[in-house]
Amino acid sequence: MHRRVIAGAGAGVASLALIAACSSSGPTSGTFSMHGSTSSLAALEANSTPLTLHTTGPAGDLTTVFHLGGGGSTGTFHFGSAGTLTVTHTKGVTSQHSDVATCSFTETNHGTYTVLGKQSTGRFKDATGHGTFNVVFKVTFQQTQTGGSSLRETSDGDGLAKGAGNAAEQCNPNPNSTPASGSVTFKVSGPMTVQGSY
Known about the structure:
The structure is a single chain. The protein has about 200 residues and is an alpha+beta fold. It has a domain at about 25-140 and about 175-195. It is built from three helices and ten strands, in the order αβαβββββββαββ. A hairpin with a 5-residue loop joins strand 2 and strand 3 (about 60-70). The longest helix has 22 residues, at about 1-25.
């Protein structure tokens, strides 16, 4: 009888210890990263570009679809049953670069963000964190032959170099022309602490 009581008490203590271990999983910290890209021209030409984003970090590996270009100073990422992550962001430096040789145009946007844990849900509820984001848009247009001569039509002795300069391929000057190709890349990275282990 005493053995059964002692055994039962031991099992109860073990169960309580297991429950305590599970319920005492404290905050988890690490580097949160999120990235995605697309080369769909239809997506690039839309007012709001949809991107499939993948995350790693303290909240686990998650996937979501986010629409760039929504405007505003806050954004919310929806991760289904895992919850939502809301951040406030500040746009920083924007740089632009044109490459006539490849007829391409690149715009890069840098900025910072801060996690709004009180407005987030699920795994991100009461999370804290901050970091940087980087968005790169690149489009390439068709090239057209311009100039009065071409490499095959030059008539003077050293006209090969002259013809190369006059007949260089240049970007389509029509501002309404459709890009031949394009891409957008989105990256987020920074420290994060969530209230649990995933």
